[in-house]
Write a structure and sequence with these properties.
4 strands, about 140 residues, about 20% strand, alpha/beta
Length: about 140
């Protein structure tokens, strides 16, 4: 099992911090039965990529109405592909960071055995495919 943690990088972000890492959008109530994790694509954002022009973040505002027992998370990474602030991480770096943070979060919350559903857009799907170790 891959375990990479850095005390300077939070496993799950808190309000007012950067937009990278995991963010819980819905708790799933008292006894969640499944975790849903969304991963955005290139030039994307962990929330804005899943938000309509009306401001509706469907992962937070609509999905819990249908799946009330699902804990819903989104994962953000540096996805800028142009300009002077373009990302410096490789696909491997992003994949390692993703699996490390998700594994640490699930271990910390004692939910390693809970089923996972992934929603991946564009490069987010490639990141997910690149994860070769089981996520537990």
């Amino acid at each position: 099992m891959l375990t990479i943690l850095s005390p300077s990088k939070p496993i799950i972000s808190t309000p007012g911090t950067c937009n990278f890492g995991l963010k819980e959008l819905a708790s799933g109530g008292e006894s969640p039965t499944v975790d849903i994790v969304a991963i955005h694509g290139l030039d994307g954002h962990r929330e804005a990529s899943f938000t309509a022009d009306t401001g509706v973040l469907w992962l937070r505002d609509l999905l819990p109405e249908t799946l009330s027992s699902a804990r819903i998370l989104t994962y953000g990474y540096d996805a800028c592909t142009h300009g002077e602030n373009k990302a410096q991480q490789t696909m491997y770096d992003v994949s390692v960071d993703f699996v490390a943070k998700l594994s640490a979060f699930r271990t910390h919350t004692r939910t390693n055995d809970r089923p996972l559903i992934f929603i991946a857009h564009s490069f987010g799907g490639i990141i997910l495919k690149n994860v070769s170790n089981p996520i537990r």
